[in-house]
Amino acid sequence: MLKQYYNEVKLAFLENKSAIYISLFILIFSLILGYLLEPYLYSYFNPVVDDLSQKVETGVVKLTFQDIFLNNILIIFQMFIYGLLFCLSIFLLAYNGFFIGYYVAIQNNLFRVLAMLIPHGIFELTSCLLACSSGLVLFNFLFKFFKTYLKEDMTLKKSFSINRYKLKQAIIIFIISVVLMIIAGFVEVYLTIPIAHFLLR
Fold this sequence. Notes:
The protein is mainly α. It has eight helices and no strands. The protein has one domain (16-200). 87% of the residues lie in helices and 0% in strands.
């Protein structure tokens, strides 16, 4: 049974490489632009940074595993669902990339901020990348579903039956994204600071 699950996961990734590559490009491109265009993004992102910092200081936002996990799960769930709306997953991923790039750019100590971000960021950004990919695959399912229904004069049920494999693949990729986000939340709360202190000492 484990082998069957492994094969389904492998197939989901292999058949949707284009969605993953597109998401990877969008993420890297937005991270770099967010870093390079920091002066031009100041008026957009600085109020967000200030608001978040204030909420953390006042205790409105608590850096517990539960709060971090719920916030991040909401983000990747939106990326997944927005795939239904003409691939808007890409814009949400790009926004997060721009913000992270901007946040790194405004820090005085680049090595310190990278030490604080990379341990959990590896899992978190990969999770976001896959969530966006799953949204694109979800859109692909919707496109194929309606295309089959309209062009081949089938019933909705039959069209769904023919194309449901693509929906299944979207869900599989999203589940992997959720697993990675759980790991990211655990690392951020319990391991990031000790690792950063070790690297910075």
